[in-house]
Predict the structure.
Amino acid sequence: MRYLYSCLFLIATTPLMSQPRIKAVDFSGGIGNYEGTLSMMYSHGWRFGQHQKFEFAIAGRFTSYLGQNQYYITAPAELTSGSTGPFVIFKENIPENIDSVLINWPQINALNVAIHLGYQFNSRLSIGFNIDVIGFSFGQQKSGSYINGAFGQQTQVTPTAFNFLLISDNDLGSLNSELCARYYWPSQWGIKAGIQFLFTEYTTETEVQQLPEPNDRFRDKSLLLAIGVTKSLTTKK
């Protein structure tokens, strides 16, 4: 059975693998409200379509996040929206289920595998979207203030170690995504600008939230303006 699956995978991916390859390195900075990121991404992929305008790539990305006085709210989807299905993205939050942890100086590093989709308008201008899929996070333990209405208590928090893309609040850990436009010069260097949507997540040392059920995961969702540079590593023929 394993041999059959391997053969089917090769048959399905052979048309893509035969397309022109693209390689690039991106350096990005994101800035928001008392928070920011620095990230580096290496991507390896292919162009396809009748005019080879479309791009698909697998990437590795390192993201380092730093914030000040950020409120991390209850993370699990079964608490925030009462369900975990694929349509959780369309559900409203349940305010009475959501508590928060205030962290004075959150700092999380994430190393993830990402996917990139893009469209090349011409040799210089392109637009793309990329999103982290799976990986791990690390960082120092921090002190936080768990807040439940008027009640608060001190707790210790560490970055949630495992990152995994699911759907909206079903996601686990710290995941970065980016929508941007790129403009290249003939030297294969280019500039990029767009937006980043970043999830960062901490786990408390104990299940500080008790209602409606015990919980130790808290998340911050950040929308950031992003700028950066890109170096194309694709060899020109």
About this structure: The chain has one domain: 25-230.
